[in-house]
Amino acid sequence: MANSNISALYPEFWFAAFDKLDIGDYNLQNQISRSTESAVAKHGDTVNVPLMPSLTAADDWTPGDAITAENVTQSTAQVILNKSKKKTISLTATELSLSPYDLIANYGQAMAKQIAVTVNTDMYLELMKTPNFVDAISALDEDDIVDARTALQLNEVSSMNRKLIAGPDDMGQLLKLDAFTHANVSGNVEALEAGKLRNKFGFEISENTAISKYTPVDVAGAVDNGAGYVLGDTTMVVKDFNDDANPIREGDIFIVAGETGTPYHTVTATTTTTSDTTGITFTPALVSSVADSAVITVTPTRSILALVPDCAAFAARSYAELPAGVGVNSSVINWQGLPVRISVWHNQTLGVNVQFDILYGVKMINTDRIVRILSAV
What we know:
The protein has two domains: 7-52 and 75-214 and 301-377, phage-related protein like fold, CATH 3.90.1690; 220-299, Beta Barrel (Elongation Factor Tu (Ef-tu), domain 3), CATH 2.40.30. It contains nine helices and 19 strands. It has helices spanning 11-14, 37-42, 93-96, 100-127, 142-154, 168-175, 178-181, 183-186, 190-194, and strands at 46-50, 76-80, 83-91, 133-136, 163-166, 199-200, 203-207, 220-223, 235-239, 253-256, 265-273, 276-283, 295-299, 301-307, 312-317, 328-335, 338-346, 352-364, 370-376.
């Protein structure tokens, strides 16, 4: 007689799907600031995060003198819970006849993984908006990590709680470097014994599987302006990109043919026409003039992130559990800071639908507090 698997009708059964996920693989949500979360819970889906103003140097002053005050213009970054994600599957009698173990291993775990991957990928893409980067495209070595540390120091970023987060490919490269692997150099035997990196150069080092390469379908376009562009310009109209399948995004790196020194520029915004990129805003500005039809080449890269948590803000909450009597069983699980609602209901064809869903938002708060180390893909 087939296993009827009545337990699969209850959300609590599907909680086990998250037990098999490696928290180290998908943990960006706990490596950037979540201080806005309580405010969002009290004030709807939006909260304004105040940014530190830029003030001038302290003034000379003699007590008793007339006091003059410096006007402060407060700016904010708005965190909005605007990302609603879900994975839903429909199980037939055939699938429901599987053992509880197989249901979780074959279906539940895949759904849980996709929720975690999607949230972490969105956070990674938001962190790509920093203009600060170290060029390690030709080769990644210890000096690049030191250069990222120096960049944070020059931006007067606190040395406390600094994190270095790498994808699997770049973590593999770090594990090959003497400064990380050799116990007599690194002072840490875990790299030799377990292939794990902990702390080095002032960073807590971790891996995140959601960090991966991103290659637009068409990575070559051209300037589209009869007069070309001149030194100091930060926007360009462009042509010949055919990138609707994988569009050029904020954080992508490009060079322009004919620009003095062919420096890298970081995309900070794009405009599209019929889904293809037709305009880009970027930093730093052009260092020389470029001609009309000058070739623009996007260089596919992957980034190691050197940051402190308050470079960005993340907030999440689950949708409400549904009341009894509406034909849906729902419950909420909190997995590594991700509040996921799990719902189960009959699908009108003697099968069962299972859905995992989540509501969240992520926002870059201060680009000076994060540096990307660019590596080749």
